[in-house]
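Methods — Computational structure assignment.
A single polypeptide chain was analysed. Its primary sequence is given first, followed by the predicted tertiary structure written as structure tokens.
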Amino acid sequence: MSGQATAVDRDVHRRVGVAWRELRRGASTAALRAHLYGEGPDALDLGQVDTLDLLAQVGSCRMGDLAGALRVDPSTATRAVDRLVAEGLAARRRSAADARVVEVALTPAGRCRHDALVRRRRETMAALLAGFDPEEQEQLADLLERLVAAVDDFVATAR
């Protein structure tokens, strides 16, 4: 009995691994990236989009906190912020609580750009999930949230 369970487990693990790989590949296609994040010189990379998302959520953030929340090295967060600042989408400023601390926040142009990204993502997710009934969509959301938590737990203990 346990031999069958092991074979089933291996097959499920393989299927999830293949689906993960295919999602990663599909999500990184040029056509989808262009649709979601823009094309040409106005295109944003995933690091910039993640940074915009976080800043839109928290308002302003210290660079170290930003890197931690994004789960990236501080130098990676700095590069993403540098590009956003250069494009006028974010600005650095001294903290009101401690003038020695530099925070980063969205500019009005950054807020506008983020709002447009959110609209496109919602439209895209609606189109991608159209083939699932509402109960399946809820189940998928729950399962994906659990998978993200499992990945976070694995990464935290694998260090």
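Note: The beta strands are 60-62, 90-94, 102-106.
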